[in-house]
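Morning - FE2/S2 (inorganic) cluster inputs below, output right after.
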Amino acid sequence: MHRKEESGETGVPWRPRIVAFFCNWCTYTAADLAGVSRMKYAPNTRIIRVMCSGRIDPQFVLDAFTEGADGVLIGGCHPGDCHYSEGNYKALRRYHLLRRVLTGMGIDERRFRLEWISASEGDKVKQVINEMVEQLQQLGPLDLPTERMRLDSELEEMRPRRSVIDISEELKEAAHV
Ligand code: FES
């Protein structure tokens, strides 16, 4: 079902879906702390625990978007605090690369965010998630199939206007030279 219909037909206001990949040692613990401290953040966030932000394969992010996420958030230890020494630096490099890939796919880069959040920063988890929800609400649902169709038709327009027959005629001619 189309995402807009989903909210329109039921009368339930549309809420963005966020997939959050959080490092076990810092951001995941901070999210736990936020929960225990009863800090309110948007409930429409699915948190996935990973052992380190460096463990997040770019494919995880692409899969989250293609499976219906409107935004993806990565949370890792502050620079210098990674339990595996340089995992978060690896995550940062991938993040910059992925943003460019996502833009190429027609996905607004504001839908993808990386934050360093330590285990004691429960309030930051709340703040970042709420900010992201606000941002996604402004951007609206990520309608990936429609976006793909738009890109396909753009590609179609960019194609040279020569038919297959024209090309085969040229090949025949070239063979006789
Ligand atoms: S252990 Fe947290 S980012 Fe590496």
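Note: The longest helix spans residues 87-104.

O.
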